[in-house]
Specification:
Layout lengths: L6 E7 L6 H9 L8 E7 L6 H6 L6 E4 L6 H11 L4 E4 L5 E2 L3 H11 L5 E9 L5 E5 L10 E4 H7 L10 H9 L5 E12 L9 H15 L6 H9 L1
Parallel strand pairs: 1-2, 1-4, 2-3, 6-9
Antiparallel strand pairs: 4-8, 5-9, 6-7, 6-8
Length: 232
């Protein structure tokens, strides 16, 4: 019997043959029962050995592939639309997570229906997985490590596919206009810093920051704190 999962994990990947295996192993080693979650991996037209790396996990993931590169937000939206779970969480292909990541985030939302999403703190790690610092997810928010109720994501309108940087800020600004993201003070996510992070392209980051301001009047860096104040 094909059991409907509770949680859908969305993993977008493009030319990450070096890291994707570590990411998926951490997701397969969860304390949440394997029948209760699915891992949807969207290969955005990789040209390296990423497809081969994914084939090693073919029995354990839901593979989707864009024949040509469509960009990160488009891949994320494809994964979310394909998701069967009522809860959605994004994990980037060069990151990895604690074994209790899915279990604890899902349990929190299940037991706290007034919260629409929950973000966990994270550990910033280097390319050798040495911990650089522990980070408060509300003070320095990242795109991942946030579990959403899928219905609210769909209502919000998913990612704006024209934002190839700061796509998570743009989504979060719209999401927090109606919904609440709680903070879980547990560092369950591992955010890897390396030379090939897309956030290293400062010109592109600034371009899309200006687009955020043009669209919403803010750049998203203060949106979370403003939303939290409105909930108090």
């Amino acid at each position: 019997m094909n059991v409907k999962p509770l949680v859908s994990v969305i993993v977008p990947v493009f030319n990450q043959e070096r890291y994707i295996g570590r990411c998926l192993r951490s997701l397969l080693n969860q304390t949440l029962h394997s029948e209760q979650y699915e891992i949807i991996v969207i290969d955005d037209g990789s040209t390296d050995r990423t497809p081969y790396a994914l084939e090693l996990f073919h029995d354990a993931i839901v593979p989707l592939r864009n024949e040509r590169n469509q960009g990160l937000p488009a891949s994320l939206n494809r994964g979310i639309r394909a998701a069967r779970g009522d809860f959605i969480v994004r994990v980037d292909s060069d990151d990895y997570v604690n074994a209790n990541f899915l279990n604890i985030l899902h349990f929190f939302l299940d037991q706290n229906p007034r919260h629409d999403a929950v973000a966990c703190d994270y550990l910033l790690v280097d390319d050798h997985e040495q911990v650089l610092e522990r980070v408060n997810c509300m003070d320095e928010p990242i795109a991942c490590g946030i579990m959403f109720r899928k219905a609210h994501l769909m209502e919000t309108g998913l990612y704006d596919e024209s934002f190839h940087r700061h796509e998570e800020r743009e989504l979060r600004i719209r999401f927090e206009q109606k919904h609440h993201i709680a903070r879980l003070e547990l560092p369950l996510y591992r955010y890897r810093r390396h030379d090939h992070n897309i956030t290293n392209d400062l010109d592109a980051m600034e371009l899309h920051r200006q687009r955020l301001i043009s669209k919403h009047g803010v750049d998203g860096s203060t949106a979370s704190s403003a939303a939290r104040r409105s909930m108090q």
